[in-house]
Amino acid sequence: MRPATGKRTRRRLTDRPEFWGFLFICPWLFGFLFLTAGPMLASLYLSFQRYDLASSKFVGFENYRRLFTEDPLFWKSLKNTLFYAIVTVPLGIAGSLGIALLLNQPMKGQRLFRTCFYLPSLVPAVAASLIWQWIFNSDNGILNSGLHLIGLPGPQWLQDERFTPWAFVLMSLWGVGGARMVIFLAGLQGISESYYEAAKLDGAGTWVCFRRVTLPLLSPVMFFNLVLGVIGSFQVFTNAYVMTGGGPNNSSLFYALYLFRNAFLYLKLGKASAMAWVLFAILLVLTFVQFRTSKRWVHYEGGDK
Amino acid sequence: MKLTPNVTQIGLASLTALTVLGGCSPTSTPGKVPLRYMAWGNPEQLALEQRLCDEFNAKHPNIEVKFLRVPGSEYSLKMMLMLASHSAPDVMRVDHYNFPSLVEKGYFHDLTDLAKADASFHRSDFFPQAIQEGLYKGRLYGLNVLFGGVIIYYNKAMFRQAHLEDPAQLARQGKWTWDQFRKDAIQMSAQNSDGHPKQFGFGPPVSSATFPVLACALWGNGGDMLDPSLTHAVFDSPKAAAAFQMLADFRWKDHCSPTQAQGENSLFTFESGKLGMVFDFMGMTPRYRKVIHKFDWDVCPVPSGPYGHPTLCKGNQLVMYSETKHPQEAWEFQRFVTSKETEEDLYVQRRRCFPTRVGVAHSKEYLESNLPPFNNWVFVDAIEHSRPLPINDRWAEWTNEFNSEIDNLIAGRERDAAKVLKRAKKRVDKVLSEEPGF
């Protein structure tokens, strides 16, 4: 009798999808609960304090109030980051998708090409930043030498505030062959040939195939890349930290860089914590909006919305 | 989900245990007073520090100093975290850029009484400039180490090729002025046949990052950055503006110094023989001795303006942690690191930086050397005419505001220094008047 019930319970546990779900996210859950959740809550608490490591004092919403009403650099860093996100996210997604489409074509040396395109994302961010510093060098960098050859004047990419934001946009293209491209590639390979065959029988050309078959079936992957892309672009930090330190005239002062500065250079840890929560709120809202609008354009295969 | 609190508690407990264990000093020899000392530096510097600890331990059988090395890139962060979590080492080296903001928070032990009780410690043994950086509200909190000032290293071969007089000789005759400097720098700048620059009169490139090094131009012209109480900016005065204008013009009118982009990636360095002169700290001597073989070089003072030739000095401070359990032993160690013998080894034999002791700097051994530079009087003269940078607890913040404004001047997009500095003053004054901590 007993073994039977025991078996039944055990079966029930492994039968439940939640069990497997939790099992699979276990490593992440562990990290989140023990390593991330504590500091996160602590930073929420700190955001209501004036805290400089040595002493702290409760100040209510003062940190938030000052950020919004008295800190021009807060707004500037937010503006810089928004610009970066708005330009690089669509550009990056288009670029990654384009490369994924190319690398999905059956051809000789396909694997070699895939490796080559993935390689740049293996370069550590700091090393890549140093390489790009060379590329952008207004006097002897390869970019300006190229522009010079076709008769265009090369700007001072990293010293002129009108061009720095674009320099970082250009640099963001470095990552188009990375993880995002791999995800697109996996998505493309998940699309069954039979859809294309059916479409071709109905007389669809390459463009119609792409527009009516590939894109809709790729939309879940696209959605995933969009959400992560937006979050990632709001956290841009290393390039600016290494290449320009936020300058010239704060034109590359991104949100995360300003946050870092407040925390670890100026020791305004209360203000920095408040900034972190403002960023969290912004990303939460943006992600929420993306999820809501996604219903209109994301199609899950065999899904009924 | 009911499990979570328990698991959290266990997790936190084990984390705490790990932290405590990790934070504890490694096993110390019984019967000896354990001291921890923390510093950063390149491998060479770290080896020297380790040797100092070993020597100290050998001479003091009752004390055992353990040396903690922390990479320079994370040093100040690590130190702040240790200070905030009450686990800092007994003795630390602090860059003066960080000293004012940390001493103000009460992290460092007041050394005034220890110094008074120590019969062998005399303030007058040290250069006043070296003592000054370690003072806070008139009390002594740090002893200066790796101290030095800015002088000019010059390429003698380039001066000869351009048929120019030796700048150190000119300085002795009182003729080494900013005008002369400018003429010489222009004379030495040259282009390749393809129009690309071949060599420049001086470096480093004028930039916001190198501005502190070039503060001598400002002071020699009678200007200053902040008022003496360090509460508001005065760099918008006509004298200060003229100095900034001169620096910007060196680049954009006279073309005798590399642009920031040209200066990147080490294309124009003193070592490569492509700069006639370079403003730099005295601590560059060992490196130049090691790597320069193709030309002869020496040192000369910074040029003088209507207000003389003041230059800047800066050091690191050797501080004691306010919560140390062994202040007397820690003081012993601090004294050892700044002793006459140590200074003779580090600064006379190895020329790592400048001695803080007047006697050591004026000794025959220091002034006469058989390796370049030979004009060692220049170092002593520079320190005696030096001033500290106006570093206060808001230094990082206000210099950032300042730099943001002068970026365009340095990039050549704006040409009128006075206008730029007016705007900069507004921003810097705002930072300095803000309530700290927000």
Describe this structure in words.
The complex is a heterodimer of chains A (305) and B (438). Chain A is an all-alpha fold and 305 residues long. Chain A has a single domain, classed as Orthogonal Bundle (MetI-like fold). Chain A has 14 helices and two strands; from the N terminus they run ααββαααααααααααα. A two-stranded antiparallel ribbon of chain A has the order 1-2. Chain B has 438 residues and is an alpha/beta fold. Chain B has two domains: 180 residues, Periplasmic binding protein-like II (D-Maltodextrin-Binding Protein, domain 2, 3-Layer(aba) Sandwich), CATH 3.40.190; 210 residues, Periplasmic binding protein-like II (D-Maltodextrin-Binding Protein, domain 2). Chain B has 20 helices and twelve strands. In chain B, strands 1, 2, 3, 6, 7, 8, 9, 10, 11 and 12 form a ten-stranded mixed sheet that branches. Chain B has a two-stranded antiparallel sheet with strand order 4-5. In chain B, helix 19 packs antiparallel against helix 20. Chain B starts with a helix and ends in a 5-residue tail after the last helix. The N terminus of chain B is likely disordered. At the A-B interface, helix 2, helix 3 and helix 13 of A face helix 1, helix 3, helix 12 and helix 19 of B.
